[in-house]
Design goal:
The chain is mostly helical. The protein contains two helices and no strands. It is rod-shaped, with a radius of gyration of 33 Å. The model has no long low-confidence stretch (mean pLDDT about 85).
Length: about 150
């Protein structure tokens, strides 16, 4: 009789453990997804700041060339400003790439947490089934030993 109670108690425990692990994984999934969105928002903001910095640098260069009496529309001044703009564009590409890599890492963590939650819940269900079967078998064995079946 105690084997039957123990089996059913273990079944309930296994099921509850699986459910709790699934709930934790669901919570982690939401956090990871939010981190991915926050990373994308930060990247967008960083790109805006970098663009502002490049425009400010180009304005400073134009002003310095003008103050020196150098025409900024051709030759060396234009080459310098084009180089500045090109470096700014390259820096923006790198920033965007790094941000997307980090966001993708968060998304992959979210997917993994979701999967682990499903696996833990299934394991809890299987443990519950196994415990219930074991408890029923133990009860039947006890009943048979007391002559309940014949």
């Amino acid at each position: 009789m105690s084997g039957m109670i123990s089996g059913f108690s273990g079944a309930a425990s296994s099921y509850n453990e699986g459910k709790v692990k699934k709930d934790i994984a669901k919570f982690n999934t939401a956090i990871y997804a939010a981190n991915a969105e926050a990373t994308r928002a930060k990247t967008k903001y960083d790109l805006m700041l970098q663009g502002r910095e490049v425009r400010r640098t180009l304005g400073t260069q134009r002003a310095m060339f003008a103050a020196a009496g150098v025409e900024g529309g051709e030759g060396t001044p234009l080459a310098i400003m084009a180089e500045t703009a090109g470096m700014g564009a390259e820096r923006a590409k790198i920033t965007k790439y790094r941000g997307e890599v980090e966001a993708t890492e968060w998304i992959n963590k979210a997917r993994m947490a979701r999967y682990e939650g499903k696996v833990a819940f299934k394991a809890g269900q299987m443990g519950a089934i196994s415990g219930a079967i074991g408890g029923a078998a133990s009860g039947a064995t006890s009943a048979a030993s007391m002559g309940a079946f014949g």
